[in-house]
Design goal:
Elements: H1 27-47, H2 61-80, H3 86-98
Helix pairs in contact: 1-2, 1-3
Amino acid sequence: MDPVTTKPPVAPGAAQPATPAIDRNSPTYKAAQDFESVFLGQMVAQMYTGLDAQGPFGGGFAEQTYRSLLYQELGRQMAASGGVGIADAVYAEMVKLQGDVK
């Protein structure tokens, strides 16, 4: 038995660490969701790195400005529609650090 990779056995009925119930209307969850939206916006921006604007309406200073706004809004919409689970994990950690675990 390798002591580094194996976990100690847990007795049946033993207390497990409490995971907080997610209150999706709380300010804490909104902050976690904002964090996820920023992360997703940055991820989307990286996906478009190196692509040139094409067509008659592409290019220029205005496109650079509005492209960053597009990435922010895509991240916000992705997080609002469920995201990738970062908001839930961040929320759980924030609640645990606040000492509000019930």
